[in-house]
Amino acid sequence: MRLGEDFYKQDAVTVAENLVGKLLVRKLKGEKVECRIVETEAYAGPEDKASHAYQNKKTDRTEVMFNSGGCVYVYLIYGIHNCFNIVTNEKGKPEAVFVRAVEPLSGIEIIKEKRDIKSKQVEEFTNGPGKLSQALDINKELNGYDLVSGDEIYLKTDDNNPEYQVISGKRINIDYAEEYREKLWRFFIKGNPFVSV
DNA sequence: CACAGGATCCACT
DNA sequence: GTGGATCCTGTGA
Questions:
Q1: Looking at the domain assignment, is residue A111 inside a domain?
Q2: Which residues pair with A84 in a beta bridge?
Q3: By residue range, what is the domain housing residue A104?
Q4: Which nt is closest to the CA of A59, judged by C1'?
Q5: Which of A4-18, A80-94, A112-126, A133-147 has the lowest mean pLDDT?
Q6: Which residue is nearest to nucleotide C9 (CA to C1')?
Q7: A81, A98 contact by CB (below 8 A)
Q8: Phi then psi for A40, rounded to 5 degrees?
Q9: Average confidence score pLDDT of chain A
Q10: How far: A117 CA to B11 C1' (Å)?
Q11: Nucleotides of strand C lying closer than 7 angstroms to a protein CB
């Protein structure tokens, strides 16, 4: 079942935790490429020193984070990689969930084509934020895209109800965030080979 | 207008 | 384990 508005309008930590195990559907070349989300991080509002929207900082880049939950936030990092985020909570509250890793379920051939690396390890195709963005052709054109009503990219529940355990931990590469480094706002599926670290 | 730096990845040693 | 890539963005002059 497709995730609706209500799901995204919860706080970022709740959404981050519940997003693990959900399916990400991306339309590429007229085909539906499906992936299971295996790792997320919450960037939770104006008090979070790790967030781009810390202290409600509103700029051209962070503006989408202030939209109501359910739209896409894409930004470029290190001049190279796009990062895929999902905006959460009510309009005016700048919160988002960063999707760090996914497990491909269908459309592997398309993913391989989009990724251009020597390694043939399947895990290497989508086990990191920049990697999954490249694999699923996620770029700035999708910034602000509506996951609730759009057709190019959206989320749904996994109706096969697989067994998995969700673990929380500290977020990655946010050394600048002082005491917010310690927050256990990273969530991932225990033992899943596609988890990034 | 100029500049520093980043929610990373990959090839190489 | 490590360094280079590479460019957009935010900031301050």
A1: yes
A2: A74
A3: 5-189
A4: C10
A5: A112-126
A6: A61
A7: no
A8: -140, 165
A9: 96
A10: 10
A11: 5-11
